[in-house]
Specification:
Elements: E1 11-14, E2 20-21, E3 25-33, H1 34-39, E4 44-61, E5 64-73, E6 78-84, E7 94-102, E8 111-113, E9 123-134, E10 143-149, E11 151-152, H2 157-168, E12 174-183, E13 192-201, E14 206-207, E15 211-221, E16 225-226, E17 251-264, E18 267-278, H3 292-296, E19 312-315, E20 319-323, E21 326-343, E22 351-352, E23 356-366, E24 375-381, E25 383-384, H4 428-433
Parallel strand pairs: 2-11, 14-25
Antiparallel strand pairs: 1-3, 3-7, 4-5, 4-6, 4-9, 8-9, 9-10, 12-13, 13-15, 15-21, 16-21, 17-18, 17-23, 19-21, 20-21, 22-23, 23-24
């Protein structure tokens, strides 16, 4: 967004900075400083709302780096004519003109993936309002004032019900997601067995910004031992492989895979990238220590989710499991059960289209001593929205005033999303040539 200035502006776009929901009707005003408008030679003013998918892929050919770009509109831009010099009869210096647009249904969420070393996004889904002052003449560029805003899909009735059920305490079916491996202490020796099962609510997708209950069971089995061998060594420490007994020892993250393409001069260029969101376990379901604006400025590797709730850890007593040859030899089995809540970050919900798609998976890393012995458990998941479309006429209300009650919808996007024109300045002629996606 352009920096604020105390100097009077010819065009001022007034639009409440909220996350919008697909299908919502949005309202605002455009203020015109008529003396400045006339001085600048502006003859007409229109307001445009647009949504685009844009990709950039960088390729190096020898010592030359080339940027391959593709832009696809999500819908035909909406245009509202606000003012014309030929029909103007205002005597005041400042005139205000209202506008009203309805965001189309079934739109993807705002999205932005940006390489660490680039200031411009590599892949983005972007929505904006733009006031365009038309200046006739070949050498007179039109005046533009743009406001970028966030959009998220509207949750269905069943998704809203699921999110509310999560908040009240899940009582439905569960789905277990197992992983196992064989590890050993050092290069030589017999293998031990480690396994884990992550149990989540059995749903086709999980809501963002709602507490998600989960249970993680970690089980270890020692290598074959004599029955006289105890599950602890002479110093009282559990023998290898000892399962973790504190939640802080586990690493829980939400991994995202982003795939995007760009067709340029008949050639199709493809790219695939990964980033992650850390799911930190803390107390409470709200965080007042970091503002949404601050979260947006953090790299993907350190962005935090809204804190999750208290957890419970249950450590079972070691269990002796006799071998096939009787009770003389066998293994010690130990299990630890972690029960807690995770709150998925305000990440864009899962989406897939012609030139851009992204998907998510939960990844839990369970540490064990030794190089390469950590057990990783990965579970593909779908994210769904958890906010309803506000009713018509509620554009100036807060989300706390709109039923069903709940936190305002949020998205966690990098600063590059908010850059005017996404780092590019398209002329009117270029905009007319853009290919329509839907």
């Amino acid at each position: 967004m352009p920096p604020s200035s105390d100097e009077p502006q010819a065009i001022t776009l007034n639009f409440k900075n909220l996350v919008r929901v697909a299908g919502e009707t949005i309202e605002g005003t455009v203020d015109l400083n008529l003396p400045l408008i006339r001085k600048d030679g502006i003859e007409e003013l229109r307001l445009e709302m647009q949504g685009i998918v844009k990709t950039r892929i960088y390729r190096t050919y020898g010592q030359v780096t080339v940027v391959h770009k593709q832009v696809l509109p999500l819908f035909e831009p909406f245009t509202q004519s606000l003012w014309s010099s030929s029909g103007s009869s205002e005597s005041d210096d400042v005139a205000s003109y209202p506008f009203r647009f309805t965001i189309p249904d079934n739109l993807p969420p705002s999205f932005c993936y940006c390489e660490k070393w680039m200031s411009r996004p590599s892949a983005t889904v972007r929505y904006s309002l733009e006031a365009v002052g038309t200046r006739p003449g070949v050498f007179h560029r039109n005046r533009r004032v743009q406001r970028v805003f966030l959009v998220m899909p509207a949750a269905t009735a069943s998704q809203l019900e699921q999110a509310e059920t999560m908040r009240q305490g899940w009582s439905g079916p569960w789905k277990g997601n197992p992983a196992e491996d064989k590890i050993r202490q050092g290069i030589w020796g017999d293998y031990s067995r480690v396994s884990a099962t992550l149990s989540l609510p059995d749903l086709p997708s999980l809501p963002i910004s709602a507490p998600i209950p989960y249970t993680l069971t970690v089980t270890t089995e020692t290598k074959t031992l004599d029955h006289s061998d105890r599950p602890e060594d002479k110093h009282g420490k559990p023998i290898f492989p000892a399962p973790p007994t504190q939640a802080s020892e586990l690493s829980l993250s939400l991994r995202r895979k982003v795939k995007y393409t760009a067709r340029d001069s008949g050639a199709l260029h493809k790219e695939k990238r990964h980033d992650s969101f850390d799911l930190q376990k803390t107390v409470g379901l709200s965080d007042t220590t970091e503002s949404p604006a601050l979260r947006r400025t953090q790299p993907a590797e350190i962005r935090r989710v809204e804190p999750a709730g208290d957890g419970q850890v249950v450590v079972d007593e070691p269990e002796w499991v006799p071998g096939e040859d009787g009770n003389k030899k066998g293994i010690w089995r130990r299990s630890v059960h972690f029960t807690s809540l995770m709150a998925l970050p305000f990440a864009p919900t899962t989406w897939s289209a012609e030139i851009l798609e992204w998907s998510y998976k939960l990844q839990i890393t369970i540490p064990f001593p030794g190089v390469g012995n950590d057990l990783k458990l990965e579970v593909p998941i779908q994210l769904n929205p958890s906010a309803a479309c506000p009713p018509p006429g509620s554009s100036n209300l807060t989300y706390a005033e709109i039923l069903p009650a709940g936190p305002p919808p949020m998205l966690d996007l990098p600063p590059a999303y908010w850059a005017e024109d996404g780092g590019d300045s398209d002329s009117d002629e270029k905009k007319e040539k853009k290919k329509k996606l839907w």
